[in-house]
Amino acid sequence: MAGIDGKVVAITGASSGIGEATARLLAERGASVALGARRLDRLDVIAGRLRDRGLAAITCRTDVTRSADLERLVTRTVTEFGRIDVLVNNAGISRISPMSALDTDGWSAMIDANLRGVLNGIAAAMPAFRRQGRGHFVTTVSTAGLKITPTMAVYGGVKNAVRTILEGLRQESTDGVIRTTSVSPGYVRTELAESIHDLELRERIRQNMADFAIPPEAVARTIAFAIEQPDDVEISDIVVRPTRQD
Ligand SMILES: NC(=O)c1ccc[n+]([C@@H]2O[C@H](COP(=O)([O-])OP(=O)(O)OC[C@H]3O[C@@H](n4cnc5c(N)ncnc54)[C@H](OP(=O)(O)O)[C@@H]3O)[C@@H](O)[C@H]2O)c1
Known about the structure:
The protein is of the alpha/beta class. The chain is 47% helix and 15% strand. It has helices at residues 17-28, 40-52, 67-81, 104-132, 153-172, 199-212, 216-228; strands spanning 8-12, 32-37, 57-61, 86-89, 135-140, 178-185, 237-240. The chain has a seven-stranded parallel sheet with strand order 3-2-1-4-5-6-7, with helices on both faces. Strand 4, helix 4 and strand 5 form a beta-alpha-beta unit. The protein is globular and about 50 Å long. Bound molecules: NADP nicotinamide-adenine-dinucleotide phosphate (NAP).
């Protein structure tokens, strides 16, 4: 099965930014999409607009830190559309700060959403993928794990843990049933800076986003590129960043 048309894709963090852009692009290209995030009101508006255009979209309130929520997202997707071809584990936060700030709550929050959230997604969709004999995990990682910068030590570390897990899963899945893709974006113009508590740092990241970030649609196109490959082609690891990012 190649292409996007007819595929069933569940996306976490679909209420804004990269997840929203991905849901819209994939639906426009013929996928049936299931949108997950905590802000159900925003999901319903996005999905409603897609349905108004005759496209297939459902919503499911999902907090990725809760394994039961991911199980519900997968179950609802399969119940509504008959199967699940792709899970885009995209939800994430960026409570970045210098290590010296000892923001242990922020560290835990990033571990819970950005790492445990991905594991919860893998655990929820893996049985369906195995049952179906096919499935694809796409995960939004980050260039913060490729070029380590001050204030992003824990964020980048958590993203690299996810990259490692996806590569391990890839190596355990060479029977051809499961594909894995890590997409590492650089600066993307989204709401991500809102999760930064340090006001000065938040403003600096917002300024970088305003100055040179790429639109979330650029990452959506990258995700679509990985999904549309034939089943025997796996785009394992891909970086998409602003041309002007150092
Ligand atoms: N923007 C960048 O420069 C950039 C660069 C590299 C990687 N990334 C990664 O890209 C992914 C998407 O971020 P974005 O840039 O599109 O930012 P965004 O606009 O803030 O979107 C983040 C999404 O994640 C969801 N989310 C956060 N915590 C959640 C939770 N516990 N359960 C479920 N959903 C949750 C949010 O929805 P709710 O609040 O409604 O739950 C929202 O839909 C993240 O993993 C981020 O780390 C972003």
